[in-house]
Amino acid sequence: MAIPLKTTSSTTSSPPKQVGSTSQKANSEQFLTFSVSPTQKVMLATRQLVEILNLSLGQITAIADVAPTVMGVCNWRGEVLWVVDLAYLMGFEPIYRSGYTQTNCSVILVRQNASQRESQGIAIGLAVTQVGQMLWCESEQILPAPATIANSGMGKFLRGYWLNETGWLEGSETLLVLNGDALVRAFQ
Fold this sequence. Notes:
The chain starts with 27 loop residues before the first strand and ends with a helix. Helix content is 7%, strand content 39%. It is mainly beta. The protein has helices spanning 86-89, 147-150, 180-185, and strands at 28-37, 40-45, 49-56, 70-76, 79-85, 104-111, 123-128, 130-138, 158-164, 173-178. The chain has one domain (34-185): CATH 2.40.50.180. The protein is built from 3 helices and 10 strands, in the order βββββαβββαββα. The longest helix is centred in the C-terminal third of the chain and has 6 residues, at 180-185. The strands form 2 sheets. A 5-stranded mixed beta sheet has the order 8-1-2-10-9. A 5-stranded mixed beta sheet has the order 3-6-7-5-4. It comes from Tumidithrix elongata BACA0141. Residues 28-188 form the CheW-like domain. Residues 1-25 are annotated as: Disordered. It holds the Pfam family CheW.
């Protein structure tokens, strides 16, 4: 299920802005893209990331009596890392379900106040099926989420959304922009 978002068009003609570049520009922020469903991509600012792990599902130990969005825990550099099914948390189909055939998943390690990195703050792992690419996006191009999404269960985890118009051969693509600190706070 892709999140439909309305976009407005301008009546004035202006040259297209280059967005989603793989090179840095002034007033831009770097993001990592990844999928929460076959039709919905999200992105998270790299300043909120610590590391990306490739884990077999056997490395994630299930814990009884926790929220269904929590897949379990794993060992990360001697720390216990809680692993959360990001797709399920956001209202999409869970990663680990009946008929699931993959044996590995990518776990994106997010630490609250990630600029402090290793030694401080709580960390969680966001399990996703596919990691995409890194790209640069101008901050002013991140739009507030519409009320229908902002007021939904996933709204508290979003900064907004970004419309990728550079892939014009495939049509434009809407990426939800995650708030890493809000995701970590939800599991404190």
